[in-house]
Write a structure and sequence with these properties.
Largest sheet: 6 strands, mixed
Membrane topology: Multi-pass membrane protein
Helix content: 40-55%
Main location: membrane
Radius of gyration: 36 Å
Distance between the termini: 110 Å
Structural class: alpha+beta
Strand content: 15-25%
Number of strands: 36
InterPro entries: UPF0182 (IPR005372)
Pfam families: UPF0182 (PF03699)
Keywords: Cell membrane, Membrane, Transmembrane, Transmembrane helix
């Protein structure tokens, strides 16, 4: 062995040049400054928002966990290597190969001795730091009062204790195993372990070190096996989530026995540390491996194959019941009210008389279709934009609550090439545009209740500027002590919405009531257009009050203009992280955020309302699902990474002020044990519901993503009988959306005012339908269930409506054959009268767009409503509502308005009026109109009674002429001429049908 005391020839010392030292120092200082700037900008952001303790708590917890993880890995590994080296045999006889290994390693020994533990410690530290949420939850946990059905432990053990304990045991096992491997490797390199033929020689020190580490590892495995028995209650494999018959009778006892065997083998290794006899622990280890195969695999398999499978339904009954009860509780569907709904299918006259409120509020404006109409009519300038999907909301107008579709007119800086314009001039959106969901204009446009620039209408005075929105720029610099304003507020020549719609009674009234905008500070020409200018006056971001602050933000956004521009004056604020979802996620990192935030006018401000969920995948016996997969539908086709959950609560309602970005969190579900723990972790960050105004509560709704998850779980778990559940004889699924481009995606849920069941009061609700879960030839698209959740939170200050969140499931008898959405859409597409009119509408340069297919439980049955839009196929194009399709049972009607269609469907008088019932009164019939109501048809294709004159040839010629005139009017934007041509087309269609 090489004599370690013999020094190598002295090497000529090499001096490091001053230039090298300087370069290294500069690089280190730059990296340090960049890191410091990232830290400081985060501190400034949280501090300005009033949530600095959230950031410091995270950093302290993560830092402490990093330090613990680093030391817990680095120290044992260091001592494992160090002890193995120090206790090496002094006169060990080494092979030539080992001698060469030592010659290679010896120069690096100190580096490996100190560096390897440090590197492993860094990995362990970062891994541990990522678990800060789990640790803080455990430190602040509370009992739930509910126990699991197998062990009788409080559910909090599974939510908080078990995940942490298993994490600790797993980490400790990894540390012990790595220490054992590195200690043995070091001993081998330095002669502590040697091989001579079949003999293996192990020094005493190596034996003791290896045996002690083996004892620790085996004891940890015993603890792990003991904890694994509790994990079976969350095991999603097999028939259901949770311990089944085979688990209770074989798997759980097997893990307990194996844990005991691991302890016994650990004792044998401990004895070996003193006796040096390896025979017994080696035999014990072999037996342990064999026992693992027998008790962990073979015995459970035998129980399952030979005892369970022959009588699985009976033996699993108890465990299926456990799974059903736990799943319904964990997903908040245990109190769902189930009601048999014997739906009639005959459309009798006056059938809707008892459903007047629901009928009057049927939404004919599809928020997924008319967003382009909003953009065309209300965008005003190229630097504004509207979202692809509008919000469904409700407002009290003239003492009556109206369902609406609305959206923010947000800023769009994509076409702004200069930093000055992007950052200092075009800083905010302007206004909220809202339209009645149940009304249309004679030309098919939405009837706005709030629109125009400056904003005017029915919503009263409110702050219209939107500095924090879904499309806001990455950052803007606003405010400050300026000689003159530079932020574009809105075009100086823009018409108000009230003026633009003054031809209607509502528009004239809005024009008279349009408020003066006192916040406009100046009017100047910007980019060749006269613009009203303003200056931000709120507190929305950190203040750029010195050169250091400007520098760190210049580095953060990699824009030196932040530092160098003279337009960044004293008092300027920098607004960033402006997306409402991002802001809530940063101040409440424990929440899963709903994908559908919406903006409402609340207490004179535009506020984003956002739902937050607390979730877990550790609730005992509850079915595990992928939340992100369940929230995918035709309106939300983009999936996210897997997010397994088996417990969910809508625990927090959050608001974000669109003007100054203020985030407010409200503790919505105060009984949620996870939220209770987080409220202790971040004290003072959650406000009570009692602090919510009545105006805010009137806009709060039942969350979309929660409802999607619950409807999917209820598709199986509406069945509470274990035998029926096992047979899956009544399994359902959400029907695919028949109007989506991708018809393999589920139909989204819809918000409507409806009455869920016979005698139920009409309420603002979110609903979805069910059809049988079958594929292939046996698949039938008939309705089996209708799920609705009361989405009305009330309008009293600090008081949630008692009925909010109540789930109502209407189940249709198995003998009934009420058509599902797919069948209804197929009937629409194949009905002779309907298809004739649709084909006529498609002629020329127009496209036909089918809107959302709505389903309502009215008239003792189920009514389907679908708006039909047209748009030009070239040039300036946007959808306009042209027709409405309705069906009830097998009867179909297709008319210009919903009111007309319902009357046609129900024998000439539906018994109730729809929201668009006054459209025909505002229309001025062209000369020669006979006032006919249009056409309708039943399933057999019989045409409705419409009168008309003239031959078929003359009618077809008139249709062609009207189509050409209508297309020309659409291209030129002459909507008056378009309306006149459209009326001619309708009359010609009626005459052609009569003549045919």
């Amino acid at each position: 062995m090489t004599d370690q005391n013999v020094s190598a020839p002295a090497a000529r010392s090499r001096r490091i040049s001053p230039l090298t030292i300087t370069i290294v120092l500069v690089v280190v200082l730059v990296l340090a400054f960049l890191a410091a700037s990232a830290v400081i900008t985060e501190v400034l952001w949280y501090d300005q928002l009033g949530f600095l303790p959230v950031l410091t708590t995270q950093w302290i917890a993560a830092g402490a966990m990093f330090l613990i993880g680093f030391l817990a890995m680095a120290i044992p590994v260091f001592f494992a290597i160090d002890i193995a080296y120090r206790k090496r045999p002094v006169y060990a006889r080494l092979t030539a190969q080992l001698d060469r290994y030592q010659e290679l390693i010896e120069p690096l020994r100190r580096l490996v001795k100190w560096g390897l533990p440090a590197v492993l410690g860094l990995f362990a530290g970062f891994s541990s730091a990522a678990q800060w949420q789990r640790v803080l939850l455990w430190m602040n946990r509370e009992g739930t009062g509910a126990t699991d059905a197998q062990f009788g432990l409080d559910v909090s053990f599974y939510l908080f204790d078990l995940p942490l304990l298993q994490g600790i045991v797993g980490f400790a096992s990894a540390v012990t195993l790595i220490s054992l491997i590195l200690g043995v490797a070091t001993s081998y390199l330095y002669g502590g372990i040697s091989f001579s033929g079949r003999d293996v020689r192990i020094s005493k020190a190596t034996r003791i070190q290896a045996a002690v580490l083996a004892v620790l590892y085996l004891l940890l495995q015993a603890v792990s096996l003991w904890l694994d028995q509790y994990r079976t209650l969350n095991d999603p494999q097999g028939l259901l989530t949770g311990a089944t018959f085979a688990d209770v009778r074989a798997v759980i006892p097997g893990k307990q026995i194996l844990a005991g065997i691991a302890v016994l083998i650990a004792i044998l290794f401990l004895i070996t540390a003193f006796t040096g006899k390896w025979r017994l622990p080696v035999i014990g280890t072999a037996l342990f491996l064999a026992s693992s195969l027998v008790l962990g695999v073979g015995y459970p398999w035998a129980i399952q194959q030979f005892q369970v499978q022959p009588d699985e339904k009976s033996l699993e009954d108890e465990y299926i019941t456990r799974n059903i009860e736990a799943t319904r509780t964990a997903y908040g569907i245990d109190d769902v009210e189930i009601e048999r709904y014997d739906a009639v299918t005959d459309a009798e006259p006056g059938a809707l008389r008892n459903d007047a409120v629901a009928t009057a509020n049927i939404r004919i404006m599809d928020p997924e279709v008319i967003s382009r109409t909003f953009a065309q009519l209300e965008q005003s300038k190229q630097y504004y934009t509207f979202p692809n999907s509008l919000n469904v909301d409700r407002y009290e107008i003239d003492g009556q609550v109206e369902d609406t579709v609305s959206a923010i007119r947000d800023i769009d800086v994509e076409n702004q090439n200069s930093w000055y314009n992007r950052t200092l001039v075009y800083t905010h959106g302007y206004g909220l545009v809202a339209a009645f969901g149940n009304q249309r204009s004679p030309g098919g446009e939405p009837v706005f209740l709030e629109n125009g620039i400056p904003t005017s209408g029915k919503l009263g005075e409110f702050e219209p500027r939107v500095y924090f929105g879904m499309n806001s720029p990455e950052y803007s610099i606003v405010g400050g002590e300026r000689d003159r304003p530079i932020e574009v507020d809105y075009p100086a020549d823009a018409e108000s919405g009230a003026e633009a719609s003054a031809d209607t009674a509502e528009g004239a009234e809005a024009a008279e009531e349009a408020p003066e905008d006192d916040s406009v500070e100046a009017t100047e020409e910007v980019d060749g257009e006269r613009q009203n200018l303003t200056t931000f006056s709120g507190e929305g971001g950190p203040v750029l009050n010195n050169i250091f602050t400007k520098l760190i933000y210049a580095l953060k956004f990699q824009d030196m203009e932040v530092l160098l521009s003279g337009a960044v004056v004293d008092g300027s604020q920098i607004l960033y992280d402006r997306n409402p979802i991002d802001r809530v996620q940063k101040v409440a990192p424990y929440l899963t955020i709903d994908a559908a935030p919406y903006a409402s006018v609340v207490d004179g401000r535009v506020k984003w309302i956002i739902d937050g969920y607390t979730t877990s995948a550790s609730y005992p016996y509850s079915d595990v699902t992928d939340m992100n997969a369940l929230t995918v539908d035709a309106d939300n086709p983009a999936g996210s990474p897997s997010n397994p959950v088996n417990y969910i609560r809508n625990s927090v309602k959050a608001t974000v002020d669109a003007y100054d970005g203020t985030v407010t969190l409200y503790a919505w579900d105060t009984e949620d044990p996870i939220l209770k723990a987080w409220s202790k972790v971040f004290p003072g960050t959650l406000q009570s519901v009692s602090e919510m105004s009545g105006d805010l509560l009137s806009h709060v709704r039942y969350p979309t993503d929660l409802f999607k998850v619950q409807r999917e779980v209820l598709s199986k778990y509406h069945v509470t009988n274990a035998g029926a559940f096992y047979s899956a004889e009544d399994a359902w699924r959400t029907p695919n959306d028949p109007v989506s481009a991708n018809q393999n995606l589920p139909q989204p849920p819809y918000y409507l005012t409806l009455s869920a069941g016979a005698g139920a009061e009409p309420n603002y609700s979110i609903y979805s339908t069910y059809i049988p879960d079958a594929t292939g030839e046996g698949a039938r698209d008939i309705l089996t269930g209708y799920l609705a959740a009361n989405a009305n939170a009330g309008s009293e200050d600090g008081e949630i409506s008692e009925d909010y969140g109540k789930l109502k499931l209407l189940t249709l008898p198995k003998g009934d054959t009420v058509p599902g959405p797919g069948q209804v859409q197929n009937a629409y597409n194949t009905d002779p009268a309907v298809s004739t009119e649709l084909n006529i509408l498609r002629q020329g340069e127009t496209n036909v767009i089918s809107g959302n297919l709505l389903t309502l439980p009215v008239g003792g049955g189920l009514l389907y409503v679908q708006p039909v839009y047209i748009e030009a196929s070239s040039g300036t194009s946007f959808p306009l509502l042209q027709k409405v399709l309705v069906s009830f049972g097998d009867d179909i009607a297709f008319e210009d308005t919903l009111d007309q269609a319902l009357d046609e469907l129900f024998g000439g008088n539906s018994g109730a009026s729809a929201g668009d019932g006054d459209v025909s009164e505002t229309e001025t019939p062209s000369e020669g109109s006979d006032g006919s109501e249009g056409s309708g048809s039943d399933a057999e294709g019989g045409s409705g009674g419409s009168s008309g004159g003239g031959s078929l040839e003359a009618a077809l010629r008139e249709m062609q002429s009207a189509l050409a005139d209508r297309d020309e009017a659409m291209k030129s934007g002459d909507w008056t001429a378009y309306g006149e041509a459209d009326e001619r087309l309708k009359r010609a269609i009626e005459e052609a049908l009569e003549a045919g």
